[in-house]
């Protein structure tokens, strides 16, 4: 097996007999595939339990603007900083130094592979609809099945990123079809009277409790949306492998707009099929229950199959993102260089093995520690939000300095977009839970060993003076988290 440390640039890969880079369709599929996992299939009941149609529309408008500005951030940075690779990792490193870049990449990686465990468990829990032995997703047969799927995807990815990306395009199309069928049936069966019956949620009660005032409902529904857009950065992470750099930004915006349209239609149309109280009581995946109520038992089976395909697609997309977010830092002396080595098919084999061994270990852990595993998923999801904050802050930094704006306008516009995106990113981190940020510091401190390894093998200084301050803050926060956990005042694991 031949190995190489540094990948050729996209231009070199597009000629001379080397496989071309990823095109617009493949990059868009990575964005859509990583954003659409299980969240959209549970959206009807989760939103119905949080807000009535009026507050829901307000919340979606705020969320849509916030996430659109983040999409524009990734589009703008891909255009203005074409020399910065790796998306959320590269922007954090370019703007705030090697160690912040490391924490962004390491946190993203941990979040991504723990999320893959969640996809596998939910995949076999969904298959339990057809095969009772898999019910719950954490039984011995389910874990065996999940392990088999994991290693099939592993060896598929070892065949090369191009192969995995091509499969992801097909699976992404397949996962969107059931959602479109649901939307079409819901549009035909939509009853405007149900939708507008209690438009502001003043009379409806969920589990015997009122929804609260309009702003309370808006806040509650926005908490649900914190997680449904994760994956918007997918194309930016793969920027180095893009055939055309401008396609990174285009794929980000196209993917976001497409997913937002699907989320809105699934969510809003559901309110016209059942009363809000009934909708809130539908078991997850609630899209299946809603369609079953509309067309019969085949609807639940159809959506369950769609969810299985969706989870498989999300798994493939996130395995690809996992290895890429390790490979690029390893090329830039931020991760151990072994994680950048590629096999003869151009796949980062060492990064892939490390990632999926971790996934396999946590899969086995879920057999005896299902509750702890669930909390780990929440922690991992919080870890992925910080890189969004660094990316938005980097755009603000560029606009304030005027860097890359010597030719052409748009500085004021980009500053405004960056400030809005940064504010929304701060909200996402806050909504994700401050307690998880405390524990995240412990993960960063433990992962710093990889960073020190990388710096030592490259004979580079470990930390700059500002980075010593950052490491000290991480260490002190870790100590605080440990003390709070020991005294029972912090419990997330």
TrEMBL record:
<dbReference type="InterPro" id="IPR022461">
    <property type="entry name" value="Arg/Orn_antiprt_ArcD"/>
</dbReference>
<feature type="transmembrane region" description="Helical">
    <location>
        <begin position="436"/>
        <end position="454"/>
    </location>
</feature>
<dbReference type="InterPro" id="IPR050367">
    <property type="entry name" value="APC_superfamily"/>
</dbReference>
<feature type="transmembrane region" description="Helical">
    <location>
        <begin position="20"/>
        <end position="43"/>
    </location>
</feature>
<dbReference type="InterPro" id="IPR002293">
    <property type="entry name" value="AA/rel_permease1"/>
</dbReference>
<feature type="transmembrane region" description="Helical">
    <location>
        <begin position="165"/>
        <end position="190"/>
    </location>
</feature>
<feature type="transmembrane region" description="Helical">
    <location>
        <begin position="466"/>
        <end position="487"/>
    </location>
</feature>
<feature type="transmembrane region" description="Helical">
    <location>
        <begin position="55"/>
        <end position="78"/>
    </location>
</feature>
<comment type="similarity">
    <text>Belongs to the amino acid-polyamine-organocation (APC) superfamily. Basic amino acid/polyamine antiporter (APA) (TC 2.A.3.2) family.</text>
</comment>
<keyword id="KW-0029">Amino-acid transport</keyword>
<dbReference type="Pfam" id="PF13520">
    <property type="entry name" value="AA_permease_2"/>
</dbReference>
<dbReference type="GO" id="GO:0006527">
    <property type="term" value="P:L-arginine catabolic process"/>
</dbReference>
<feature type="transmembrane region" description="Helical">
    <location>
        <begin position="377"/>
        <end position="400"/>
    </location>
</feature>
<dbReference type="GO" id="GO:0005886">
    <property type="term" value="C:plasma membrane"/>
</dbReference>
<dbReference type="GO" id="GO:0043858">
    <property type="term" value="F:arginine:ornithine antiporter activity"/>
</dbReference>
<feature type="transmembrane region" description="Helical">
    <location>
        <begin position="295"/>
        <end position="326"/>
    </location>
</feature>
<keyword id="KW-1003">Cell membrane</keyword>
<feature type="transmembrane region" description="Helical">
    <location>
        <begin position="140"/>
        <end position="158"/>
    </location>
</feature>
<keyword id="KW-0472">Membrane</keyword>
<feature type="transmembrane region" description="Helical">
    <location>
        <begin position="347"/>
        <end position="365"/>
    </location>
</feature>
<keyword id="KW-0812">Transmembrane</keyword>
<keyword id="KW-1133">Transmembrane helix</keyword>
<keyword id="KW-0813">Transport</keyword>
<feature type="transmembrane region" description="Helical">
    <location>
        <begin position="251"/>
        <end position="275"/>
    </location>
</feature>
<dbReference type="GO" id="GO:1903826">
    <property type="term" value="P:L-arginine transmembrane transport"/>
</dbReference>
<dbReference type="InterPro" id="IPR004754">
    <property type="entry name" value="Amino_acid_antiprt"/>
</dbReference>
<feature type="transmembrane region" description="Helical">
    <location>
        <begin position="90"/>
        <end position="110"/>
    </location>
</feature>
<comment type="function">
    <text>Probable amino-acid or metabolite transport protein.</text>
</comment>
<protein>
    <recommendedName>
        <fullName>Arginine-ornithine antiporter</fullName>
    </recommendedName>
</protein>
<feature type="transmembrane region" description="Helical">
    <location>
        <begin position="412"/>
        <end position="430"/>
    </location>
</feature>
<feature type="transmembrane region" description="Helical">
    <location>
        <begin position="221"/>
        <end position="239"/>
    </location>
</feature>
């Amino acid at each position: 097996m031949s190995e190489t440390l540094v990948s050729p640039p996209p231009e070199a890969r597009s000629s001379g007999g080397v496989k071309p880079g990823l095109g617009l369709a493949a990059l868009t599929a990575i964005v859509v595939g990583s954003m659409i996992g299980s969240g959209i299939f549970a959206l009807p009941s989760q939103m119905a339990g949080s807000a009535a149609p009026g507050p829901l529309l307000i919340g979606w408008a705020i969320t849509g603007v916030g996430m659109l500005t983040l999409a524009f951030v990734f589009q703008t940075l891909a255009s203005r900083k074409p020399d910065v690779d790796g998306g959320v990792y590269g922007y954090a490193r370019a703007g705030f130094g090697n160690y912040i870049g490391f924490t962004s990449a390491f946190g993203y990686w941990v979040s991504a592979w723990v999320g893959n465990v969640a996809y596998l468990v939910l995949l076999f829990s969904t298959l339990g609809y057809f095969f009772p032995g898999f019910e719950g997703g954490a039984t011995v047969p389910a874990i065996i099945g999940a392990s088999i799927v994991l290693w099939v995807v592993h060896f598929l990815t070892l065949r090369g990123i191009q192969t995995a990306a091509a499969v992801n395009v097909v699976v992404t199309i397949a996962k969107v079809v059931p959602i479109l069928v649901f939307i079409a049936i819901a549009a035909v069966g939509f009853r405007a009277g149900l939708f507008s019956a209690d438009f502001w949620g003043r009379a409806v009660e969920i589990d015997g409790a009122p929804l609260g005032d309009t702003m309370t409902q808006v806040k509650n529904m926005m908490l649900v949306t914190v997680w449904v857009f994760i994956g918007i950065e997918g194309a930016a992470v793969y920027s180095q492998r893009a055939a055309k750099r401008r396609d990174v930004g285009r794929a980000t915006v196209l993917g976001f707009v497409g997913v937002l349209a699907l989320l809105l239609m699934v969510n809003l149309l559901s309110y016209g099929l059942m009363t809000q109280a009934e909708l809130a009581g539908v078991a997850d995946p609630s899209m299946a229950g809603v369609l079953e109520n509309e067309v019969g038992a085949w609807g639940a089976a159809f959506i369950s199959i769609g969810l299985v395909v969706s989870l498989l697609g999300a798994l493939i997309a996130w395995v690809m993102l996992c290895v890429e977010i390790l490979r690029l830092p390893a090329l830039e002396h931020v991760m151990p260089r072994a994680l950048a080595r590629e096999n003869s098919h151009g796949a980062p084999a060492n990064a892939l093995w490390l990632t999926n061994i971790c996934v396999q270990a946590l899969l086995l852990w879920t057999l005896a520690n299902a509750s702890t595993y669930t909390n780990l998923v929440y922690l991992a999801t919080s870890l992925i939000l910080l890189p969004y904050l660094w990316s938005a802050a980097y755009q603000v930094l560029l606009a304030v300095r005027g860097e890359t704006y010597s030719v052409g306008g748009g500085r004021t516009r980009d500053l405004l977009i960056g400030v809005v995106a940064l504010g929304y990113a701060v909200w996402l981190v806050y909504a994700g839970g401050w307690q998880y940020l405390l524990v995240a510091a412990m993960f960063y401190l433990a992962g710093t060993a990889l960073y020190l390894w990388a710096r030592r093998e490259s004979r580079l200084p470990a930390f700059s003076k500002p980075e010593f301050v950052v490491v000290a803050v991480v260490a002190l926060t870790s100590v605080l988290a440990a003390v709070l956990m020991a005294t029972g005042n912090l419990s997330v694991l």
